[in-house]
Amino acid sequence: GTAIEQALIDAAGRPVLVVHGACPSGADRHADHYARWLRGKGCQVDVEQHPANWRINGKRAGFIRNAHMVNLGADLCLAFIKDGSRGASHTAALAAQAGIPVRRPTA
Q1: For residue 49, what pLDDT band results from cuts at 50, 70 and 90?
Q2: Chain mean position to CA 39
Q3: Contact in structure between 70 and 40 (CB atoms under 8 Å)
Q4: What is the pTM of this model?
Q5: In terms of Cα–Cα distance, which of 74, 102, 75 is closest to 88?
Q6: How far apart are CA 63 and CA 59, in angstroms?
Q7: Are 56 and 27 in contact (CB under 8 A)?
Q8: Is residue 12 predicted with pLDDT exceeding 70?
Q9: Max Cα–Cα distance, the chain, nearest Å
Q10: What 3-state class would DSSP assign to 49?
């Protein structure tokens, strides 16, 4: 929660859009729930989910989805990398290559 709170502070009153890969567990789920909770408390936070299309893209679906999210652009990438997560690590690397600042919060 504190990483999203810091992003809100850094946004200095501008609305914050939390974009994630819609994984049913882990950081995506937690970020989604926390952002929605903050919105319920009156914060200017919205959520945009980008689920991977495993049926069409097979094993590469997560990486294709990650590239799509980065290509949409962002002011900041929060990468919650647990146990060397390939997906979060991939997204963080793509964001950095795109010139998007990356923060890697740790528990």
Answers
A1: very high
A2: 16
A3: no
A4: 0.86
A5: 102
A6: 9
A7: no
A8: yes
A9: 40
A10: strand
